[in-house]
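Blinded run. Sample ID left blank on purpose so nobody reads anything into the name before looking at the predicted structure. Input follows.
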Amino acid sequence: MKQFNYLKARSVDEALSLLSKERTSAKLIAGGMDLLSLMKDQIISPEVLIDIADTKLNYVYEDADNLHVGGATTLTDLLKNPIITQKYPLVASTIAQIANVQVRNRGTVAGTILQRPRCHYFRGSFQCLRKSGEKCYALTGNNKYHCIIGGGPCFIVHPSDLATTFLALEAKLLIRSPKKEKTISMNEFFVLPKINTLIENILALDEIIVEIKVPSFNAMGKGIFLKIRERKTGDYGLMSIALLQSGELSKKRNFKVVLGGIAPMPWRAISAEEILQRSLTTKDINAAALKMIQEAQPLSDNAFKLYMLKGILAEAVDALAEAK
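Blinded prediction complete.
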């Protein structure tokens, strides 16, 4: 790891001021779980770290319209908050499956959304597309953990479980820069490789994710988060699903189906949602899975994810039917 200067901000305004001055050479740090790993591997080498852990962005509250979560709220604090445990069990269930206690104690909500790809070529010594190189080594190399949909010319998958759930919950991000404040949807935040191979999201160098907003009406729905991983430890998922249903089974249903581990961003399966609106018969569940499979383009070593798609969707629908 290269030498760097450490600055501690006491407010968001101070952090933005420092970030503006050090724009091209600075990175924000709160939990630092992914950032420090990237620095140790010399994937990035910022000259300045600006600590925002004490900028009063660790909070959770609810008003008439939204659940508000500060960007520097730790995953543990969010998991233990009674608003989350009582009214947003889908969020609680997702966090409980992220890594391990030690990571959740340090990792922040904004940090987990901003995680960089876990691609072993990007994290290794390869000068791949995501590091301004000319080639995606996963295309013809070891691509077991890479995407099957939305890829090209780079084939990363987005590693954030919580981003998958937030997309299903129609969350929005409150973002501040020194000059303005804006709110954008989770779906607008991420950037596919076909648009830009160097970035995963639209966050500018002088911007901070101040808050995540979740519409309160989603607290009335039922949700399930499932994750498939090779080991039942703090392993990253091979695939995950956030399934959210609003409306009673006997009435009109509205489903959100968002998948993790299959695309360069949390992937909303709109075509599957449309089929599930009709019914939850085995025939329609299989048809929804088939629709997702038809949209996929697996690489040489990850066609197994096609079978996982069918299984995880069926399991999620069954779990949702049994949920209270």
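Unblinding after everyone has recorded impressions. The radius of gyration is 20 Å.
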